[in-house]
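> tool_call: predict_assembly(chains=two)
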Amino acid sequence: MSSPAPMSEALRAFRRTPLLSTLSVASIGFSLFTIGLFGLVALNFRQTLRTLAERVEVVAFVLRGTPTETITAASSDVQAFPEVLEVRYVSEDEALARARSELVEFKEAYRDLETNPLPASLEIRLRPEYRDAEHARQVAERLHTYPFVDDVRFGRDWVERLDRLRNLAAAVGLVIGLAFAIVAIVIIGVTIRITVLQRAREIAIMRLVGATNRFIRGPFLLEGALKGLLGGGLAILMCRLTLQVFRQTAGEVGGGLVFFGPPELGLVVLFGTLIGLMGSLLSVGRHLRHV
Amino acid sequence: MIRFSHVSKTYANGVQALQDVSFHIPRGQFAVLTGHSGAGKSSILSMVIAEQKPTSGEVKVSGFAVGKLIPRDVPRLRRKLGVVFQDFRLLEDRTVEENVGFALAVTGARGDGIPGRVMRVLTRVGLAGKARVYPKELSGGEQQRVAIARALINDPAVLIADEPTGNLDERAARSVFQLLRDINAGGTVVVMATHNLALVKDAGYRMIELKGGRIVYDSGLEDSAGGAA
């Protein structure tokens, strides 16, 4: 006969009430699955926004006849701006060649030209953290101060829309994520409370024979943490399967979908374990105060 | 050992369970609480095990003032007591030895010392051969013996028995009562609440009769006043 160590008591609870334990793990798993699914959507949405943001570019058109040395010197200056990742000089000829290859519908018009109408330019890519309307505008203003710069474009409307989309996504993500998390905690708390009530008689007997609250709590906390851990694992499995189904059914678009990395996976399991632990702590604590 | 001094108890629903109850049960005594249902027997026992606190007056058990006990001290008091109920209160999914050993383990006893102590106490209550069976495989009398073994495992100074024979047939009741007598003969204070006067009347133990929350008869007072033994 072994003494009731917290771990063996927690495992005994699994063996003794397999249906209730399975339901607990499943409800934790499904609750975390909803959060995980939302996390996946948010992750992929963020990824899409990041890809879009990579296109944020400031283009400074250079006055015809500007000496190459002047442009090269200015390029080094611009490269030193804190917001700038990369500066690329596009000559007039290069601009024309690009137009011919990219704008196929104007192929004929560009072929018959006697003089090249396209100006040279400096194409400036911003660092990821500066790819918003405000920083693009600041860089554009500084570029305007160079006398050889004729015009600066950065697609203000498009970048501003991207900014709004990003802010909206962050706010919606925070609210929905928080709501999902609260719902998950409530469901898990209720599930663990059912377990505690189911074992109310046992708790009463334990107290009767002189068990301290700490002794009583131990196995319940371990049980809650174990259920949370298993629920977290189940949620990850379900998220993985869901993504797999999306990838298979959504064709080319689905192929670009990304899954959680190890840090996010660890977070899901840790979150599951913690809410299992917290749910148990609150449920048992509440019960012990009332018996 | 157990002292009630002018104890009254009124529950939250307004029911007055005890009114000005005073008695003292010294070391080694076997005291029987009698009275009809609602007379106050269980209220007295629930105060002895610190399930309830007195509304007024003082309850002292093994040096603990129950009315002033902080939650942390309740387990310390209960480890000095053994408690037996009419409904046995055994854990159905644990074997006899696990039910008994469990009460020892909650006190922090080392795992390797538990089996020996469990077997000794099971032998004492006559259930050494049933250590590995589950409560539902036992008769009522045997289940109550398991409960008594669990109550004894921590060598309590006081054994509280609330209607311990209430669910048993006459033969099993006599057997359990005899076991309680043997335990008392070993020096343990036994406080037993019972309806079964026929069972206890000839034992010569101290009788405290309650009615409407008051003590209406206490043979211990007669004894101290020079009355019949």
